[in-house]
Design a protein that fits this description.
This protein has 227 residues and is α/β, with parallel strands linked by helices. It has a single domain, classed as Alpha-Beta Barrel (TIM Barrel). Helix content is 45%, strand content 14%. It contains nine helices and nine strands. GO terms for molecular function: 2-dehydro-3-deoxy-6-phosphogalactonate aldolase activity.
């Protein structure tokens, strides 16, 4: 007898990332952040309850920001890079102390290099074909991007066929008030961009936004009938 389709792909998730997601499944995307401000913003996020922080590589001196966050924050906080487009960038993130590689696409070479370096992999996927190919190459979570285009019904359809233990993480257009339907459909985390941080925000403003997202997550879980 063959295995059911949604259990056939071997899955060995990155334990530290999954543990962080269990505490708080919200990924802070700090696109455009500078190294001189990133530590204060990182502390504000952690104080609000966040456990995963991403510095996109199209930010100013992103590797310096990743290194600064890694040096300043507790070891259980997952610090990584977003908009990772090449294998060379994976190596640079690893040298900076990052533990997470987030991609807008699902290049198998980048995913495999990420896993070979012992980092967590979150590739961007927009079709089931991309999703299963990413899992075959070692992805830890599936970044459903862009969430505005995919929508809740796609999350629900994917959840029926993607292995249950694989987190589906919508990214794009997520706000404190619209997480409930995604959670009810089977999403297990969210990537948060400009509604959480945009260039020019102070650490205090980011902290207030972060607390609003934590409250929104709690309300969404109630709405979705989750703990």
């Amino acid at each position: 007898m063959t295995a059911p389709a949604n259990t056939a792909i071997p899955y060995h998730p990155h334990g530290a990332l999954i543990a962080a997601m269990h505490v708080c499944p919200l990924v802070a995307i700090l696109r455009g952040v500078r190294p001189d401000e990133v530590v204060a913003i990182g502390h504000a996020l952690v104080e609000a309850g966040f456990r995963i922080i991403e510095v996109p590589l199209n930010s100013p001196d992103p590797f310096d920001s990743i290194r600064a966050l890694r040096d300043a924050l507790p070891p259980e906080i997952q610090v990584g890079a977003g908009t990772v487009l090449s294998v060379e960038h994976v190596y640079e993130v690893a040298r900076a102390g990052g533990s997470l590689i987030v991609m807008p696409h699902s290049d198998p070479a980048v995913i495999r290099a990420t896993k070979a370096k012992g980092l967590a992999s979150a590739p961007g996927v927009a079709t089931p074909t991309e999703a299963f190919a990413a899992l075959s190459n070692g992805a830890d979570v599936l970044k459903m991007f862009p969430a505005e285009q995919l929508g809740v019904e796609v999350v629900k359809a994917w959840r029926a066929v993607v292995p249950k233990q694989v987190p589906l993480v919508p990214v794009g257009g997520i706000t404190p008030s619209n997480m409930g339907p995604f959670l009810k459909a089977g999403a297990q985390g969210f990537g948060l961009g400009s509604a959480l941080y945009k260039v020019g925000n102070t650490a205090e403003e980011v902290g207030a936004n972060a607390r609003a997202f934590i409250a929104g997550l709690q309300a969404a879980r109630t709405e979705a009938g989750l703990k």
